[in-house]
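User: Could you check the structure of this?
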Amino acid sequence: MPRRRQPTARQERLGAELRKLREAAGLKGREAAALLGTDSAQMSQIEAGTAGVSEERVRRLAAQYSCTDAALVDALVAMATDRTHGWWEEYRGLLPTPFMDLPELEHHASHRRDVEFLHIPGLLQTAEYARSLFAYVNPEFPESDVERWVEHRMKRRVIIERPEPVPYEALVHEAALRIRVGSRSAARTQLARVLELSEADHVTVRVIPFDLDGFGGAGSAMVYAGGPVPRLDTVVRDGPGGPVFIDAEAQLSRYRTLFRRVESASLDPDRSRDFIRRLAKEL
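Assistant: Sure, the predicted structure tokens are below.
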């Protein structure tokens, strides 16, 4: 298989998981390469995601690494053989690479959880809200660039709007609901959109109110995308250059705990809807 110049986050994750299995088995890269009848350089490329790997090789490596987790092996095979050419590919070269990796991650997610404190979560945003946000944060952008970003964000909503949607839970702080990113009218429309989506069986919205005592979780904003098995879950956080993907098990465990703590502090879905309705009436 030809070497990739710029592997996707999904391809890099496959390589990283194969490396973790090798290291857990106590094997060196050259030893794993010998199992495949190749050299250390090719093995390094596979583990870096810059070279593809076949189903047969994934299963052979897993067997040699004594990996008995059949669900994990099947998930790695799916990652290795996936040939999805998603809608996001039309933006490649027009938007930064991490913004191609994010919708690909969402496309394959088993579930999605968001924690947001200052903005409405992207999957719940209206086009008008997103447009005001992008234009404000990037005043140097020409209108055509802003519209491209808005279009990209609106297309990402497909995961909760398609016939078989991804189960989605959003924990949203009162601050995000109150901050008027656009006009009063746009804010009212945005709250109505959140309410509308919260009525769907696969969508749960919970509000974190201002008057909550002892809440110190305001730094735990995150996107949590479930994998086919928990080991392949991914946390996404904002970084200076765009989305940062986190997949180390110790960090995943920490963010799972953080999510549960924030969730336990939030209002239940019915009370959250009532809360949002009251805010909308104030506008």
